[in-house]
Amino acid sequence: MKEYWTKIRVPDQTKKRVYSDSLRCTHCGSENTIPIFYGYPTENSMEALLAAVDRGEIKLGGCCVEEGMPTYHCKDCKCDSGHLVLLERG
Fold first, then answer.
1. Any idea where the domains of the chain sit in the sequence?
2. Euclidean distance between CA atoms 24 and 73, whole angstroms
3. In 10 A of CB 41, how many CB atoms?
4. Rounded Cα–Cα distance for residues 4 and 35 (Å)
5. Are strands 72-74 and 59-62 parallel, antiparallel or unpaired?
6. What is the CA radius of gyration of the chain?
7. How many helices (H) and strands (E) does the chain have?
8. How far apart are CA 88 and CA 84, in angstroms?
9. Rounded CA gap, 43 and 67, in Å?
10. CB under 8 Å to 39, separation ≥6 — which residues?
11. Taking Cα atoms as reference points, which of 54, 49, 20 lies closest to residue 37?
């Protein structure tokens, strides 16, 4: 399983760790993918998140987070791929 951090300019407490078995699109094979950001942003991070979306660095996935949700978005074919794994804090 490959681990990567979303590379967005937001405060550290809003960065999410994402795990995925591949960052290659499972639909078209492209590596032109971006992470999907889940969770409810803080007031301080909202502007930075929207700017990252405008720059094409991330896709917003919503505030509800469930096991199995897609972890990255293909900018070529517009499909979502990956499999979100929720980890217990420990």
1. 2-81
2. 10
3. 17
4. 9
5. unpaired
6. 13
7. 1, 6
8. 13
9. 26
10. 14, 16, 63, 65
11. 49
**Tens of pLDDT along 34-55?**
989 888 888 888 888 889 999 9
Hunting for tokens 């720059």 — which residue is that? 55
Comparing CA positions, the residue from 17, 35, 21 lying closest to residue 74 is: 35
Cα dihedral: 86, 21, 57, 78 (round 10):
-110
pTM for the full model? 0.70
3-state secondary structure (DSSP) of residue 47: helix
Length in residues, the chain: 90
Residue 9: what pLDDT? Answer: 41
pLDDT over threshold 90, residue 79:
yes
